[in-house]
Write a structure and sequence with these properties.
about 325 residues, alpha/beta, Rossmann fold, five-stranded parallel β-sheet, binds NADP nicotinamide-adenine-dinucleotide phosphate, binds glyoxylic acid
Length: about 325
């Protein structure tokens, strides 16, 4: 069995050695320009067109991330980047859900306990106790109830938060109110104080964090965007922060990454940014999932994490 590896920045040796340990019979190699030798599987992130194009023998392509929007965009712009009919699989949870839970909990607790306001008071040497927020007035709405959104929802419930999710299909999650579909979006937003975005970036979700959405939330809402920069209309957020409709935003992802040096988010007093690290790929767990999936395909079983190309996630 031949397996190709390509990633623009990951340490190829670590991945090739790790996969070799898991699949001792396999011949695993890093793809380099000009390599069109046989391959049964490919593990890739942002593969150049020549990496996979025309490979009719491939049995599976493993994306080395959870969100496949960038890879699907490559295919859209350069058809054939992903050979037709070959299943594309993404990383599902495998250590990312825990990281998302930690990030989301850190931010929600920070806002719930009014740390953003106390931080400001401190800078003005003000000793000023504020009334505590009540959970019932501080509803957290999670957009996307997939591998990551559901994990975050469950963790917030454990901490006593009132949690609701919004997804395409209806969900049953203990102690969580599930909304689904475009027709229930307004109901989901009304009464929500904190939005955590964990949607995939698709033509249906691009730009969804916009003025219309902000205006339906409770006053002094908080926006936590952990999914993709393409979801957010940045100018609308700046306006909503200015008007007070949005009290604060925590952003891990941006339309342009790295965030341009002159971008207003860098210095905005109520915007907290991190450099797309909310949940990073954990190599050992990712390799476990990929090798397990290869074994599943080889034995005729259904692999995990298949991307529905029509839906775009
Ligand atoms: P997932 O399991 O595919 O879940 C996606 C969720 O979004 C599902 O609940 C889906 O609904 C819902 N959804 C999709 N399109 C929708 C629409 N048009 N309307 C309403 N709901 C919609 O994905 P995941 O593994 O949780 O990951 C989510 C995203 O997180 C990824 O796509 C990626 O962009 C982002 N991410 C970011 C980082 C980071 O470090 N910042 C790390 C990893 C992932 P159904 O359940 O009904 O299908
Ligand atoms: C990171 O953003 C990922 O999609 O894995």
């Amino acid at each position: 069995m031949n397996i190709l590896f390509y990633h623009p920045s990951f340490d190829a040796n670590e991945w090739i050695e790790g996969m070799q340990t898991r699949l001792p019979q396999a011949n695993i190699r890093q793809w380099v320009k000009g390599d069109n030798q046989k391959a049964d599987y490919a593990m890739v992130w942002l593969p150049p067109y020549e990496c996979l194009a025309g490979r009719k023998d491939l049995k599976g392509i493993f994306a080395l991330g959870a969100g496949v929007d960038a890879i699907l965009k490559q295919e859209h712009e350069n058809p054939g980047t992903l050979p037709a009919g070959v299943p594309l699989m993404r990383l599902e949870d495998i250590g990312m859900a825990l990281q998302m839970e930690e990030y989301a909990m850190a931010k929600v607790l920070y806002y719930f306990r009014r740390m953003d306001e106390y931080r400001q008071f401190q800078s003005q040497r003000q000793w000023k106790p504020l009334p505590a927020n009540r959970h019932e007035d501080f509803v957290v709405g999670i957009m996307g109830a997939g591998a990551l959104g559901q994990a975050v929802a469950k963790r917030l419930v454990e901490f006593g938060f009132h949690v609701r999710t919004w997804s395409r299909s209806e969900k049953q999650i203990d102690k969580v109110i599930s909304y689904h579909g475009q027709e229930q979006l307004s109901d989901f937003l009304q009464g929500t104080r904190v939005i955590i975005n964990l949607l995939p970036s698709t033509p249906q979700t691009v730009g969804i964090l916009n003025q219309s959405l902000f205006s339906q939330l409770q006053q002094k809402a908080y926006i936590i965007n952990l999914a993709r920069g393409s979801h957010l209309i940045e100018q609308d957020l700046l306006v909503a922060l200015e008007s007070g409709q949005v009290a604060g935003a925590s952003l891990d992802v941006f339309a342009s990454e790295p965030l341009p040096q002159m971008h207003p988010f860098w210095t905005h007093p109520r915007v907290a940014i991190t450099p797309h690290i909310a949940a990073i790929t954990v190599p050992q767990e990712a390799m476990d999932m990929i090798s397990d999936n290869i074994k599943r395909i080889e034995s005729g079983q259904q692999p995990f994490g298949i991307v529905d190309m029509g839906r775009g996630y």
